[in-house]
Every structure is written in structure tokens, then in C-alpha cells.
Design a protein that fits this description.
It contains 3 helices and 6 strands.
């Protein structure tokens, strides 16, 4: 993962920290985003579904959501395992369904 990529929606959101890989099936499901500087949210990190990515360049990742949507989303703490219920809640928050995630993963693997 290129940690220097900036995430943008309508304006800067944060920096790409890593990918979250679901241990059930070893599938990348989320971007882990550090939004502490761009959003002024001290130390907050977020999981953003890969389906929210609208484009990628050498220096940025464009998201299909704005700063307010990200800032109001649940924070992510990497200390504990993220269970399927939490992952599903994140997908629903952003307007996606879990089945879409499984279909996207299967397509990417083929």
C-alpha cells in the first residue's frame, strides 16, 4: 500500500494508511484512512469500503463520499478483530450491501 496517497472527496479527507483484510477468506474489504490532519479529528481512523473508491492516481485516491460523510462515520481502532457485524454496519453506513462486497472480491480474484 502506498502510504503517501491522499484521499479526496470534494476536498481532502485524509491519508491512506493501509488495507483491512477480512480474515474470513483473506479478502481486502476496506481502506484504513487516517483523517486526523485533514479533518482536524485528532487521531481518528476510519474504515472505508473499497466500493467507495471512484478513482486512483499516483498521488491520490478519489472517494465517492464527502468529508462530512467520512467525519460522521464510526471510528476504527485496530486493537480488536473487526467482526462481520461491524463490517456490515460500515457497508450500510456508506450505502453498500455486504453481498456487493463478496461479488466485488470474487470478480477481483478472477
Amino acid at each position: 500500500v502506498d502510504h503517501d496517497r491522499e484521499l479526496i472527496g470534494s476536498e481532502p479527507i485524509g491519508t491512506l494508511e493501509d488495507l483491512y483484510v477480512d480474515t474470513d477468506g483473506a479478502t481486502a474489504r476496506f481502506l484504513i484512512v487516517d483523517a486526523s490532519i485533514a479533518l482536524g479529528l485528532d487521531g481518528r481512523r476510519f474504515l472505508i469500503p473499497l466500493e467507495a473508491v471512484g478513482g486512483i492516481s499516483a498521488v491520490w485516491v478519489t472517494l465517492n463520499h464527502d468529508r462530512d460523510k467520512i467525519a460522521d462515520s464510526p471510528s476504527f481502532e485496530q486493537k480488536a478483530e473487526v467482526d462481520r457485524r461491524y463490517q456490515t454496519a460500515i457497508y450500510r453506513y456508506y450505502g453498500y450491501f455486504w453481498a456487493q462486497a463478496d461479488e466485488a472480491a470474487e470478480y477481483a480474484a478472477s
